[in-house]
Amino acid sequence: xxxxxxxxxxxxxxxxxxxxxxxxxxxxxxxxxxxxxxxxxxxxxxxxxxxxxxxxxxxxxxxxxxxxxxxxxxxxxxxxxxxxxxxx
Length: 88
Prior knowledge:
The chain is 68% helix and 0% strand. By secondary structure, it is mainly α.
C-alpha cells in the first residue's frame, strides 16, 4: 500500500532540510504514533519499518523515548519467577 501526503511546497522544503529522508521519517512517525496509541503491535511496527529483529524495534523505540509497556501482571509474574529461583 502506498500513502501520499500533500504538503505546501515551503513546508516540504523545510522538512526535507530538517530530515534528509522525509518519506522514511514520515513512516517512522506514523509507526511510533501507531505503537504509542495501541493501534500497532511491536511486531507490526517491526515489519512496517523493515527491522529484522525485535531487538532492533526495541532499540528504535528506546531511541525515541517510547518504552515497552510493563504491566502489574508482568511485575507479578516476574516476582513469582524470582521467588521460585531463589527458593532452590
